[in-house]
Amino acid sequence: MGRVDGKIAIVTGGGTGIGRAAAARLAEEGAKVTIAEFNAESGQAVAEALGGDAVFVRHDVREEASWQALMEAVASHHGRLDILVNNAGILATESDQTLGQTEMEQWRAVQTVNVEGVFLGCKYGVAAMTANGGREKGGLGGGAIVNMSSIAGLVGTPHLLAYGASKGAVRQMTKSVAIDCARKGLGIRCNSVHPGVIHTDMGDQVMALGNNDAAAKWAERLVQIPMGEAGQAVDVANCILFLASDEARHVTGTELVVDGGITAI
Ligand SMILES: NC(=O)c1ccc[n+]([C@@H]2O[C@H](COP(=O)([O-])OP(=O)(O)OC[C@H]3O[C@@H](n4cnc5c(N)ncnc54)[C@H](O)[C@@H]3O)[C@@H](O)[C@H]2O)c1
After folding, report:
1. Measuring CA to CA, which residue among 95, 221, 89 is closest to residue 165?
2. Ligand 1 lined by 82 (C-beta under 6 Å)
3. Catalytic entry in 38, 56, 67, 163
4. Cβ atoms of 179 and 188 closer than 8 Å
5. pLDDT attached to residue 134
6. Could you confirm whether 163 is annotated as catalytic?
7. Which of 111, 114, 153, 239 could staple 168 via S-S, CB 3.0–4.6 A?
8. Which ligand 1 atom minimizes the distance to the CA of 42?
9. Domains of the chain, each with CATH number or no CATH
């Protein structure tokens, strides 16, 4: 039996990187996964590669109507929602993003996807999971929301000002949602995941900031990671899987850091 056998899951931004890895691990462990992705080509490709019960739904986390349509699609297909991974996120910059260099347009673009997208996800996710009924004390049920933050939400990021602020908001919002759901006895858990340096398109983008030599920057960054290597998307996906599963039934409002020890120094 899989660790999330039969559970109905949504992964936003599941077309690549960490989202794709999370969708794959959830599917491997028995979940029926909906890939909710802005990029139709990558989202469709992941759903086809996973096969089985995996489906793709075109989705924009910034749009409330898109969330309503996504929840309706999942409800009509599966009748319930157990797991929501609010993974989609953007950097929205090809250069350093210090206070002086950050324009309003850029600030808003980052907050719209990274903060408003997660807010809408929590709002519609909790509404859908509430329909599952609360969990009996000591029992299971309800649902699990996993929000993608970053170590940029834990420590200062002067070169990624808007991004760091957005991830700090996700960390804080997660705790509010967790407490609200717990106090109402909904049985819905909400936790945040905080990756450090991970090998994905976005990881490469961070290393290429400021037109520096990305390979040299990777090498420089690796020295700063106590474990001596960057993480892989599957390392983050395994943390998401744990928080989404009933193994984490007493875990809510917490932050799971997956950074090879960077923030432990
Ligand atoms: N890669 C890292 O080093 C790292 C570190 C810390 C946190 N994170 C966070 O992890 C998450 C995933 O990162 P990644 O490295 O896999 O990123 P990525 O850029 O490789 O993938 C992000 C995915 O989100 C999708 N997306 C973007 N805007 C969207 C929207 N409006 N609606 C729906 N989908 C949208 C993209 O199409 C893409 O498939 C992000 O929230 C990111 O901030 C990544």
Report:
1. 89
2. no
3. 163
4. no
5. 77
6. yes
7. 153
8. 39
9. 8-264 (3.40.50.720)
Q: What is the pLDDT of residues 144-198, one digit of tens each?
A: 999 999 999 999 999 999 999 999 999 999 999 999 999 999 999 999 999 999 9
Q: Roughly what angle, to the nearest 10 degrees, separates helices 161-183 and 104-111?
A: 30
Quote the longest CA-to-CA distance of the chain: 55
Q: Among 51, 71, 58, which Cα is nearest to 8's?
A: 71
Q: Look at the chain and count its residues.
A: 265
For residue 173, the one-letter residue type is M
**Contacts with 81 (C-beta within 8 Å, 6 or more apart), sequence order:** 8, 9, 10, 71, 74, 75, 125, 128, 129, 132, 143
3-state SS, residue 147 = strand
- Token pair recorded at residue 237: 């996906």
* Cβ of 147 below 6 Å from ligand 1: no
Residue 35 makes CB contacts below 8 A (sequence gap 6+) with 11, 14, 15, 19, 23, 43, 46, 47, 50, 54, 55, 56, 57
Q: What angle do CA 156, 162, 163 make, to 5 degrees?
A: 75
pLDDT along the chain (265 residues), means of 10: 97 98 98 98 98 97 98 97 98 88 95 98 98 69 94 96 98 98 96 96 82 80 93 98 97 98 96
Q: Is 201 a pocket residue for ligand 1 (Cβ < 6 Å)?
A: yes
Quote the pTM value.
0.97
